Amino acid sequence: MNKTIGSNKRLLNHDRKNMLLALLFILPTAYLLIKTFVVPVYDTIIWSFYHYNLMDGSTPYYVGFKNYLDVLKSADFQISMNRTLVFTVLSVSLELFFGFVSALLLNQTFRGRSFFRAIIIIPWALLTLVNGLTWQWILNPGYGGLTVLLHKLHILAPDVNPVWLADPSHLVYFVVLADAWKMTPFITIILLAGLQAISSDLYEASMLDGANFWKKVFHITLPQLAPSIMMALVLRTMGAFKVYDVLTVFTGDATTSVSYLTFNNAFRYFFLGKASAMAWMTAIVILLLAILYVRLLNKKE
Predict the structure, then answer these.
(1) N or C: which end of the chain has fewer CB within 10 A?
(2) Nearest CA to 246 among 145, 173, 144, 175?
(3) How many CB atoms within 10 Å of residue 116?
(4) Spatial separation of the C-alpha atoms in residues 169 and 252, rounded to whole Å
């Protein structure tokens, strides 16, 4: 009996030592995460309720929800929010459609399937800045790839050189193309993993019942793929709504997206209070969209 009690105590002491050792190794990482993530997030919450402007040299003072109200009334914020919503809806819709089609094709058995599965990742693996520069060259007037192609196809007259990126109101559509080209492989990978998890018995049973291709897609593939589709939608909606880097290549107009406008207010004009409020309003919209998607997924299940 005494031997058993002594053995249990030794095991308990050993477990405590292992736990302390694990905590010792975790502490540096935890410290870095707190300093680089938790503290800045906390600071932005506080700053959003203060008049905090580094340019005027004034001491920060509490203004309550004034920053949030000013942001809502701002014409620039309304324009940037509308353009961000348009960009998000268009880019996510295109990416989901082409990602689903690509996943269906890559799920088939054909020669060279592994090769095509590998190379489809290339656009996604490229840096966003590189992607933006590539599309900027394609859309460049005069010698850009799109203009040259349209000239060779005789769709454009030789003396016509459209400036594709001149109109800020149409710029969002070209950014959608660039973003869709880059992020469609990401959707494809998620949906392809979901397709491979669907049992082949379901398709074999539907074939015995005389189901054609479209019936199998709508009655088997899409319902079984719903969790993967929802996950892809949530991830891409959050990513598209906060798009910034590709816009810096295409334009200098800060109203092109909410993230670009927030960056300008924070790091160009140093309106830290207003920028913090703007950032949290964006975060709230993304959070609401994520909650909506999760609720829809639960209802679907």
Answers:
(1) N
(2) 175
(3) 12
(4) 13
The two three-digit tokens of residue 263, written as one number: 């960056």
**CATH code, domain carrying 229:** 1.10.3720.10
pLDDT digits (tens, 9 = 90+) for 110-148: 888 888 888 888 888 887 778 888 888 888 887 788 888
255 backbone dihedrals φ, ψ, rounded to 5°? -80, 5
Span 211-220, pLDDT tens digits: 777 888 888 8
Least confident of 55-59, 102-106, 134-138, 145-149: 55-59
Distance, C-alpha 163 to centroid of its chain: 28
Provide the β-strand partners of residue 61: 51
3 state DSSP class of 62: strand
Report pLDDT digits (tens) over 192-226.
Answer: 988 888 887 787 787 777 777 788 888 888 888 88
Strand-pair partners of 62: 50
Q: What is the pTM of this model?
A: 0.79
- Is residue 8 located within the same domain as residue 120? no
Number of domains into which the chain is organized = 2
Query: Is residue 57 domain-resident?
Result: no
φ, ψ at 219 (rounded to 5°): -105, -15
Radius of gyration of the chain (CA): 26
Token pair, residue 295, equals 């609720």
